[in-house]
Structure formats: structure tokens, C-alpha cells
Amino acid sequence: xxxxxxxxxxxxxxxxxxxxxxxxxxxxxxxxxxxxxxxxxxxxxxxxxxxxxxxxxxxxxxxxxxxxxxxxxxxxxxxxxxxxxxxxxxxxxxxxxxxxxxxxxxxxxxxxxxxxxxxxxxxxxxxxxxxxxxxxxxxxxxxxxxxxxxxxxxxxxxxxxxxxxxxxxxxxxxxxxxxxxxxxxx
Length: 186
Hints:
Blueprint: H1 2-10, H2 18-25, H3 29-35, H4 39-48, H5 65-98, H6 102-128, H7 138-154, H8 156-161, H9 166-182
Helix pairs in contact: 1-5, 4-5, 5-6, 5-7, 5-9, 6-7, 7-9
């Protein structure tokens, strides 16, 4: 599987063949089929080794005031690092999920569920405290926060090449997340 992860980071998914994986893994091609039926199966196995659960620690503390912005900034840094480490696999998961591959959509949702649930909870608490209007749907807000995080992680290098510093990306994304989760009075 490690050979597949390296290939996913170096070349397009559509350019990877089972023969390439077997050769890079130093196994005979028929042995590949002992463990996997398709390249998709390898990518799914790699995806299941990735966990976003630990990132929820950044959502556990109170996000009130500037300390909350700091927690959000640490979450943004952690997402950027997660994407740096697993870009090839995460990109393919997103690509295939968007094209209707249900197994990949399921994995993507499982990866991000703890994070969107954390944001959903923050929005509900902010509504209860009167900081956010009740017209905001907490679940939608949670999904939108995940979209912001995914966007900055997935497009980090492109955004950096466009002239944005790491601090620009982290700071702006953190403040947007904080604003969504805590409201203007958070």
C-alpha cells in the first residue's frame, strides 16, 4: 500500500496501473490480487488508515474571544498538515466521491464527521447564548466549516503560489471559522 500512496502523490490516479503497483512493491502482479481486486480497493484501504478524529481536540475548548481564534488557527494548521501528509489519497477520495463512487463518499463523510459535528455543536451553543440567529442551521454551518477547512488544505500550495502567506491563509480561515461558530459577539 505504501507504494500506491507514493504513486498517488507523484502522478495522476488514472496513470497508475496494477502492474506499476506490483513492480514498485516488488511483488508479482498475481500476488496483488491476493489482497486487492482493484486500485480503488488499495486507495480505500489507505483512506481507512487516515483519521481526522484527533483534530477534534481543537474544537473541545471554549472558543470565546481571541483564545477561540487561536484554537481555530491550530485546527487550520492541523488540517494543512494532514493534507500535506496525505494529499494523494485525500485528493482521490474527493475526486471519486464527487463522481458518485459511494464507497469513497462514505469514507470522506466518515473522515470529516467528527469535525462537522464539533462545529455543529459550537453553533448550537452560540445560538443558545444568543450570539447566532436561529435561522442558521447548525448542521449546514458545520458542513460549511468543513468545506473551508478542506479548501485550504486541498488548495494550500495553489493559494501559496498565488501570493498568500501561510499566516494569511491560517489567519483568515481561522477567523471565518470562529465567526461562523461563535457569531460576531464570540
